[in-house]
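Tokens for chain A. Residues wanted.
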């Protein structure tokens, strides 16, 4: 290994090949309690019993109650005792491939260094919400394991790519279909020479970038701070999977606002025209380029194009579409302050389509909806490299890593 440590191999807790299909689950934070309960019905080995353990408590039980965390730990122990989950004997890397329709991305699973996270080697681009971070801290501490991998990106690299392709030419550990018909395939990289080669190539990277999982990485760092002592201890590392940036896919992350801040639809359109060119559309508006937006208001779609002179192109954060919409329309006209805390705004992942925006407005649960052009990976990395933060809900990654296929035990 080089002197700079970003990653290291780990002795994973994982399902046996015959149980992988019954264990795989969506990430804990993309389903609510009722959705998790429905998905896990008649699936006693589903990892949702560990990641959303309140589903095994009486209806109405809080996911943040002591009983919920204790239930998750008991459920994890049961899967280990039953041989559904097994622990590797030796530290390994894993090659992790996700195939969604015609798209494939292949990355490397490892544990990332908390020290690198704290010193800008593993770079973040979002703030976290204290309540969600506190939940993950308790989850990790109670399970004594990290069970939800952080999704990372790295600038596409020939040396890493060659090692990944070689590993993926062998027979996989298993290949299973997860949520949204995504195929998840894992290969173990365990031979000492292969582990050394992949360690060297990964640790030679300039940086890693958090794509999805800011709460999980922040919580892991807090647990590490609570247990600090031995710098090589397992709690000083967190579970992650990194993909080359040019294989990753960011979808749009759209906005709906509950009311028009006291304005009529006509008055709101007039205010919007102060900063945007507003054009009525005969159909749904999917923004084809940056600095343009779709807007659904009172049963009608409009295209909004921000006036070019209002775009601060030298600023990697202020020039993002999510920032332009927030700074020029949501805050000054609709009165939406901090989108992390304002209850009048909600966020809709692009995987749900524009019809979900129409449904929210037509049902009356929102007064106006905005469709955005997806943030690009290059923009994300530029913000992180500058040590800056994106507005919340700037990126929606698909496909998503599954829960349950790899866990990092804190020895």
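Reply:
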């Amino acid at each position: 290994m080089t002197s700079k440590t970003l990653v290291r191999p780990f002795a994973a807790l994982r399902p046996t090949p015959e149980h992988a299909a019954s264990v795989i689950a969506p990430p804990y934070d993309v389903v609510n309690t009722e959705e998790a309960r429905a998905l896990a019905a008649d699936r006693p080995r589903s990892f949702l019993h560990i990641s959303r353990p309140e589903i095994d408590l009486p209806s109405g039980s809080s996911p943040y109650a002591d009983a919920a965390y204790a239930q998750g730990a008991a459920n994890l122990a049961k899967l280990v005792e039953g041989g559904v989950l097994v622990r590797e004997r030796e530290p390994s890397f894993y090659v992790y491939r996700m195939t969604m329709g015609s798209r494939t991305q292949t990355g490397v699973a490892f544990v990332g260094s908390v020290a690198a996270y704290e010193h800008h080697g593993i770079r973040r681009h979002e703030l976290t919400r204290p309540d969600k971070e506190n939940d993950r801290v308790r989850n990790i501490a109670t399970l004594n394991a990290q069970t939800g991998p952080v999704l990372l990106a790295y600038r596409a690299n020939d040396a890493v790519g060659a090692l990944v392709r070689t590993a993926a030419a062998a027979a996989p550990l298993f290949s299973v279909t997860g949520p949204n018909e995504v195929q998840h395939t894992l290969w173990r990289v365990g031979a000492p020479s292969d582990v050394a080669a992949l360690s060297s190539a990964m640790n030679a990277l300039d940086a890693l970038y958090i794509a999805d999982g800011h709460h999980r990485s922040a919580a892991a760092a807090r647990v590490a701070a609570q247990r600090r002592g031995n710098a090589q201890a397992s709690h000083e590392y967190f579970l992650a999977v990194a993909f080359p940036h040019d294989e990753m896919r960011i979808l749009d992350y759209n906005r709906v606002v509950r009311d028009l801040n006291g304005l009529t639809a006509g008055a709101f359109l007039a205010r919007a025209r102060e900063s945007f060119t507003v054009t009525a559309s005969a159909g749904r508006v999917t923004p084809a380029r940056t600095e343009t937006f779709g807007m659904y208001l009172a049963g009608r779609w409009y295209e909004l194009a921000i006036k070019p002179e209002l775009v601060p192109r030298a600023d990697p954060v202020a020039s993002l579409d999510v920032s332009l919409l927030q700074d020029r329309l949501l805050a000054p006209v609709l009165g939406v302050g901090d989108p992390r805390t304002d209850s009048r705004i909600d966020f809709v992942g692009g995987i749900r389509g524009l019809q979900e925006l129409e449904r929210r407005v037509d049902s009356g649960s929102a007064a106006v909806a905005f469709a955005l052009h997806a943030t690009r990976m290059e923009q994300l990395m530029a913000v992180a490299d500058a040590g800056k933060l994106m507005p919340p809900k700037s990126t929606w990654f698909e496909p998503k890593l599954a829960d349950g296929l790899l866990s990092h035990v804190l020895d």
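The radius of gyration is 22 Å. The chain has a mean pLDDT of 95.
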